[in-house]
Amino acid sequence: MPIRIPGELPALSVLSDENIFVMDDQRAIHQDIRPLEVGILNLMPNKIETEVQILRLLSNTPLQINIDLIRIDSQAPKNTPAAHMDTFYHQFEDIEHKKYDGLIVTGAPLALLDYEDVKYWPKMQQVMDWAKKHVQSTMFLCWAAHAAMYHFFGVNRALREDKLSGVYPHDVYQPTDELMRGFDGRFFAPHSRFGHIAVQDYQNAGLNILAGSEEVGAYIAASHDKRMVFVTGHPEYDPETLDQEYRRDLAADLNPAIPLHYYPDDDPTQTPLVTWRAHGTLLYTNWLNYYVYQVTPFDLTTLA
């Protein structure tokens, strides 16, 4: 079954060209099933690119999914047309009465700011508290994962001197957990962050660390009740995303390090290697199946 998105959303044509089954609202109303309700709080500046990346990963499942794109900042981002935001995004106040089977909160380019200095931090806190009662399972990505650790457990991230940038190997620590089902014992995933939280801090918070490595620390952690998932990297990244970030920072004279394990021989003149997309898709498929669909109530109004 497909993901259901507005018929004019740019992601629709991109995903259709990739032979990914998506449907618009008109076709979806004829489906006599109970679809999953999934919200995406998109904090990335290039909204359209991130929409495509995440919707692509949500599409590889037999479940029908209704998508709500959510915003908490009324100011239009400089990399996304205001008309796009006005047409396709819901203000949080307009959907906070709803309950969702799943919620995805993306990363944000805010690594060097204290949380209290983020202009929408009070709203972010409100959303995280709301999700505990209105969402069956929430997946926090990169900056959002660290922000959730700070909000819920009082754990503040440290800032690395150099950005962790590249595609890193990870080991599965708990192969019997449903979120890790089908994963190779060692797999790859992109990272692009300055923030770091020690493995011990996740453990002290009572979370299961499902995958990670000595080089990057914890990569995937989850609460025992499956209602919070913390992913410190970017499994949704396109093949060229790290390259674009690297060249953007070069152009800005930020002297970025070359993303590791990404270009052949770490040579940025060569085409990047793509080693993470299968496991990225599997992560989202497992989350939807085992952390959302298998445990969510049929009647979402009973979710507590």
From TrEMBL:
Query: What job does the chain carry out?
Result: Transfers a succinyl group from succinyl-CoA to L-homoserine, forming succinyl-L-homoserine.
**Origin superkingdom:** Bacteria
What is an example of a GO molecular function annotated in this UniProt entry? homoserine O-succinyltransferase activity
Concerning InterPro entries, the annotation shows: Class_I_gatase-like, HST_MetA, MetA_family
Q: What is its EC number?
A: 2.3.1.46
Work out whether the entry's keyword set contains Cytoplasm. Answer: yes
Gene3D superfamilies reported for this sequence: 3.40.50.880
Q: Where does substrate bind?
A: K163, S192, R248
**Compartments where found:** Cytoplasm
Task: Write down the chemical reaction(s) this protein catalyses.
Answer: L-homoserine + succinyl-CoA = O-succinyl-L-homoserine + CoA
Name of protein: Homoserine O-succinyltransferase
Pathway given for this chain reads:
Amino-acid biosynthesis; L-methionine biosynthesis via de novo pathway; O-succinyl-L-homoserine from L-homoserine: step 1/1
Could you tell me which PANTHER family the record lists for this protein?
Answer: HOMOSERINE O-SUCCINYLTRANSFERASE
Sorted keywords for this record are: Acyltransferase, Amino-acid biosynthesis, Cytoplasm, Methionine biosynthesis, Transferase
| Cross-referenced Pfam families | HTS
Q: Where is this site: Important for acyl-CoA specificity?
A: A111
Q: Organism source for this protein?
A: Pseudobowmanella zhangzhouensis
Give the site residues for Important for substrate specificity. S192
NCBIfam families per the UniProt record, alphabetical:
metA (TIGR01001)
